[in-house]
Amino acid sequence: MLNQINGLHHVTSLASGAQSNNDFFTKTLGLRRVKKTVNFDAPEVYHLYYGDELGTPGSVMTYFPFPGARRGRPGAGEVSMTTFAVPKGSLPFWADRLATFDVKNIKPETRFGENRLRFEGPDGDGFALVETDDARAPWDGEGVSADYAIRGFHSADMRLRDAGASAELLRFMGYEQIAAEGDIIRFHIASGNGADVIDIETLPGASSAQQGAGSVHHLAFSVTDRAAQLEVRKALLDTGWQVTPVIDRDYFWAIYFRTPGGVLFEIATNEPGFDRDEDSAHLGQALKLPSQHEHLRQTLEERYLEPILD
């Protein structure tokens, strides 16, 4: 069993528009945009990162906004919901705030004894807020006070037809099953970073998910540094997983592999961080391009990347 994984690092999803995506995460949810860059493989598309003040691993939601992209179709073989931690007693504030911003399908619920508030993002993305005792420092620079502000991720849900092989993988990655409720099994990683819960929902008869706007592209897990990442990669390869080489993503190093249920996993390093090319006071303000795409800056800005109004 691995002991290098700390919990979630980031969650990356797809969107249909950069401006609406930016407004939802900064103006509605009160997160900070910590990086404005582009998709390494499709530089005509933004890669936007939102999180706490510094983009601490375990707080960062990232998006590829493909203009006009068709919505995804929910189903089995995907990350179906991303859940953020908020302070206890704050859900009434959030219910009012989300309603004020015309957020869709706001629904209170309880899971494993925790009070939660479900809602949808602008592309039908599945989100929830859960009340917890969470000591992580929030970002309160977008008009949401520290008494209510998001602390980072709490968990992510995977919707699968069969949980068996994916559950075994999570155990290998250092998670342990701590609860079950209806169709949902909860896994937790001890001494994690706060973003340390994975829930698996088993729906044997569900149709396959079809990826599109509002879909999660991949789920990234955190390791401290490159040495720990190489240990994880070797252990996965030795166990028979097909794992990519280490890829430099400028703000972290990444490896990827596909899980038995179809969800794409990433293992990402906490180093070097989002302040490697911007000072912390100005994170996410300037367009930062990977070095291999810097020569395209004028073309990208003039022809492909819509201006984002803050």
The level-1 CATH class = Alpha Beta
Report the principal-axis shape.
globular
Lateral strand order in the biggest sheet: 2-3-4-1-13-16-15-14
Structural class: alpha+beta
User: What's the CATH topology label?
Assistant: 2,3-Dihydroxybiphenyl 1,2-Dioxygenase, domain 1
Q: Biggest β-sheet, characterized?
A: 8 strands, mixed
DSSP strand content: 35-45%
* Radius of gyration over C-alpha positions, nearest whole angstrom: 18 Å
How does this model look, in words?
The protein is of the alpha+beta class. The chain has helices spanning 18-28, 91-100, 164-172, 226-238, 297-304; strands at residues 8-15, 32-38, 46-51, 60-65, 78-87, 104-111, 114-120, 126-132, 152-160, 176-181, 184-188, 197-202, 216-223, 247-248, 252-258, 264-272. It has a single domain (8-304), classed as 2,3-Dihydroxybiphenyl 1,2-Dioxygenase, domain 1. The strands form two sheets. Strands 2-3-4-1-13-16-15-14 form an eight-stranded mixed beta sheet. Strand 14 (247-248) and strand 15 form a beta hairpin. It is globular, with a radius of gyration of 18 Å. The mean pLDDT is 97.
Supply the key terms.
5 helices; alpha+beta; 2,3-Dihydroxybiphenyl 1,2-Dioxygenase, domain 1; single chain; 8-stranded mixed sheet; globular
In short:
The protein is an alpha+beta fold and 310 residues long. It has helices at 18-28, 91-100, 164-172, 226-238, 297-304; strands spanning 8-15, 32-38, 46-51, 60-65, 78-87, 104-111, 114-120, 126-132, 152-160, 176-181, 184-188, 197-202, 216-223, 247-248, 252-258, 264-272.
